[in-house]
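User
Take a look at the entry that follows and flag anything odd:
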Amino acid sequence: MFERFTKDARAVVTGAVGHCERAREEKVDEAHLLLALLDREASRGSFALASLGLAGRRSEVERDLAEARRRGGLSRADAEALTGLGIDLTEIVSRVEEAHGAGALAVGGTGGGRRGAGRRPFTRGAKDLLTESLRIAVAHRDRHIGDEHLLLALTARPGVPAEVLADHGVTYEAVTRVLYGGGAAKAG
C-alpha cells in the first residue's frame, strides 16, 4: 500500500516514526501521525488544517494529546462512560499519580531507552488508520493516498486524535468541505 502514498503522505508516516522515537515510545500510534501532519507545510493536508484555523495552535493540540495520555489514552467519551458507571477517572488518575508519580498511567510511556535504533512497529490503530486512508482515497476517486486522506482518516475514526481535532473545529465534514466542497469551512 505504501507505494500508493504521495511524497507528502510518506513524509507524514516517516515523521510519525520520528515523533515516536523522540518521545522514546515503543510504537507509532495515531497521535504521532497527527503530530507529523501538523509538521507539514505546502500540502493538501496542511492547507485544510490552516483553512480550519489549526495553524499556529500546535501547542494546544500537544497539550490535549498529553492530557489524554495522562488519562491512560482514554478519550473524554470513555471517561464519561466510566462516570456513568460510577467510576471517577480523575480520582483514579490522581491516586495512581500520588502513589507512582506524575504520568504513571501515560500510554506508550518512555521505553527507557530499551529499544535501539530500528524500525518502530505501528499500533493496530495506526495500521487501521492507514487502511482507512486508502478507503477514503478510493471513495473520492483519488489515485494516490495523500496527507489529506490521512487527515480525513484521523477525523473519521473514533478516539483521542479525532476528539482533539474536533475540539479545534477540524471534523471529517469540515475537512471534506475544504478539500472537495469548493468552499472554505470555518472552525466552530
